[in-house]
Design goal:
The complex is a heterodimer of chains A (337) and B (251). Chain A is built from 13 helices and two strands; from the N terminus they run ααααααβαααβαααα. Chain A is mostly helical. Chain A has one domain. Chain A has a two-stranded antiparallel sheet with strand order 1-2. Chain B has 251 residues and is an alpha/beta fold. Chain B has two domains: 166 residues, P-loop containing nucleotide triphosphate hydrolases (Rossmann fold), CATH 3.40.50.300; 75 residues, no CATH class. In chain B, 35% of the residues lie in helices and 25% in strands. Chain B is built from nine helices and ten strands. In chain B, strand 1 and strand 2 form a beta hairpin. The chains are: A mainly alpha (337), B alpha/beta (251).
């Protein structure tokens, strides 16, 4: 089974590596933006996986860090476009701030949230992210409810041009690989052992002498920082920044991706993000097709009900595929309840 | 004469129930001091106050010459006070080796080390395997803790406590739920540790208590009704009345 798993993951990562080449060859540039979105959400889901999968901290507010990262780009663009501050488009600065600001926000939010447990933790992380959501709605200057359309993207000078979809794609792909490598080192380090141990049995960890709170907090901050990178990419991919990306529904989507792919495994969230967006994209078409095959009438609207299939499908995976898609690949088919 | 642990005037109430009632007790360096008493005597509450999980309402706990009454759990562990839990409390999804390695790691400075792999770090694995050998689990190091037998989990529990290089061990019913065979093995392991370590032993198994203890304190309703050598305790009329069997009190 291990062979199948490694093979499958390698295949997915290789396939992702050639998406722009294939898309341009068959002249379907749409695929590049769809798959860029997958990579971006794979980074965001991986960041959530650090706290959720490895640390057992169910953050229901990770959309906030995604949003903060994208607003770094949006606010930089605003001042470049309106105040002639050209330096505010500097891509390196965007990337750095999209790591630092969401990271600090996560440290602050985590410092309070991590004093609670269970449902309270979930609700507090949710409350903080909704606070940020309404804060940005109130920021009329930066578009408020309507968001900001970006005429200029993050500027990396002669190094790369993000207006070129393929270059943006490979930046996202490179950053995903980097994030996965960093996470791999992190979760297997001494630090990682403490965070994972605290998920398994925090009381025991304190008894052997670990001040677990500070380790969990640092993990939470790192997770926010990585999620901010995804936000930076998302703004440049959609060429638009808005509060809707910070809405709690997106925090829920990220949790679904992690659970769907496999919590607490390195590649699980990547598989989850790819699977989630594939289903979102093709399930409606599939349902329409099935409707035609079984000879139903007014099949045009069948696709609109894709979530009626998507929801139960997720429930089945959670119930019966221990460890999500990654668990299935390892042959861990068994009931979770 | 040199005291490892001194408890003075300790009080803990839960609502109307006084779980610890003006308890004073001292444990001499190097001795095995057993605390016995019927169910509900407040033994586990006492352990909780010694480790810092429960805050006493009044009184002081002194360990290694300093007042630790208000000290956090992990800080007491750093001072050399280690505990084992009454209900097995190990990291179920970690291997035995990883369980002990984490306990070793806790006492090698901070763990904000983000890059090097912990699982192959000889500074963790080496000591971890030594401690596993001490408790007789050397050949079970690679087994996931949840797959170990109950007795083995109790041994693992002890190995984790030892891995924190304690000056003193608080053992909360180490023989709980063990069959006579496992129990006898645990007594042997503890006998070997005796002398190097100060041990406070809370235990129901009287054979184990009388085999190991240098001194015994009898707790009833949160109060120490007697402290003395096993011989003295065996012959103390109050103890016999309260605990070892009422009928002998008439004699």
């Amino acid at each position: 089974m291990q062979m199948i798993r490694v093979g499958f993951i390698a295949l997915v990562m290789l396939a992702l590596a050639v998406v722009p080449v294939v898309a341009n060859a068959i002249d379907e540039p749409f695929y590049v933006s769809l798959f860029t979105r997958m990579l971006v959400l794979a980074i965001a889901a991986s960041s959530l996986n650090l706290v959720l999968g490895y640390g057992g901290m169910v953050s229901f507010g990770h959309a906030a860090y995604l949003g903060l990262g994208s607003y770094v780009v949006g606010i930089g663009f605003y001042h470049a476009a309106n105040d002639g501050m050209d330096w505010a488009l500097n891509g390196w600065m965007h990337l750095a701030l999209a790591i630092i600001i969401p990271g600090l926000a996560a440290l602050l939010i985590g410092a309070i949230s991590l004093r609670t447990r269970g449902v309270y933790f979930i609700m507090i992380t949710l409350a903080f992210s909704q606070m940020l959501y309404y804060f940005f709605i109130g920021l009329e200057r930066y578009g408020g409810d309507d968001g900001l359309s970006l005429w200029y993207l993050s500027d990396f000078g002669s190094v790369m041009d993000l207006n070129d979809d393929s270059q943006l794609y490979y930046l996202a792909y490179g950053l995903l690989l980097l994030v996965l490598f960093i996470l791999y080192r992190l979760v297997n380090s001494r630090f990682g052992m403490v965070v994972r141990g605290a998920k398994s049995n925090e009381r025991r960890l304190m008894a052997v002498g670990f001040p677990t709170y500070r380790y969990r907090l640092v993990a939470f901050g790192i997770s926010g920082a990585i999620c901010g990178v995804a936000g930076f990419l998302m703004a440049n991919q959609s060429e638009f920044v808005s509060t809707s990306e910070m809405h709690w529904v997106h925090s829920g989507d990220l949790i679904v991706m992690v659970v769907l792919g496999g919590m607490g495994t390195l590649f699980g969230p990547v598989l989850g993000a790819v699977g989630f967006l594939m289903l979102e994209q093709y399930l409606p078409e599939l349902m329409e097709g099935v409707c035609h095959i079984i000879g139903g009438s007014s099949c045009g609207i069948a696709g609109e009900y894709w979530k009626m299939v998507f929801g139960p499908l997720l429930i089945l995976i959670v119930l019966f595929a221990r460890g999500g898609i990654d668990g299935l690949l390892q042959g861990k088919v068994g009931r979770n309840v | 004469m040199s005291e490892a642990l001194t408890i003075e005037g300790l009080v803990k109430q839960f609502g109307g129930l006084t779980a610890t009632d003006h308890l004073s007790l001292s444990v001499t360096k190097g001795e095995v001091h057993a605390v016995i008493g019927p169910n509900g005597a407040g033994k586990t509450t006492l352990i909780g106050q010694l480790t810092g999980e429960i805050t006493p309402d009044a009184g002081t706990v002194r360990f290694a010459g300093r007042d630790v009454t208000g000290l956090a759990v992990h800080r007491r562990s750093m001072l050399g006070l280690a505990r084992s839990f009454q209900i097995t409390n190990v990291l179920a999804d970690f291997t035995a080796r990883a369980n002990v390695a984490l306990a070793v790691q806790a006492h090698q400075g901070h763990s904000f080390r983000f890059w090097r792999k912990a699982a192959t770090d000889q500074r963790l694995i080496g000591p971890a395997e030594e401690h596993l050998a001490t408790v007789g689990l050397a050949d079970r190091a690679g087994v996931t803790a949840s797959s170990l037998s109950h007795g083995e989990q109790r041994q693992l529990e002890l190995a984790m406590a030892l891995a924190t290089r304690p000056a003193m061990l608080l053992l909360d019913e180490p023989m709980a739920g063990m069959g006579p065979e496992d129990s006898a093995r645990m007594v042997e392991i503890l006998k070997r540790l005796k002398g190097d370590l100060t041990i406070l032993l809370v235990e129901h198994d009287m054979d184990a208590v009388f085999a190991l203890a240098d001194r015994i304190t009898v707790l009833v309703y949160g109060r120490a009704i007697a402290t003395g050598s096993p011989e003295q305790i065996r012959n103390d009329p109050d103890v016999r009345a309260a605990y070892l069997g009422e009928e002998s009190a008439d004699a």
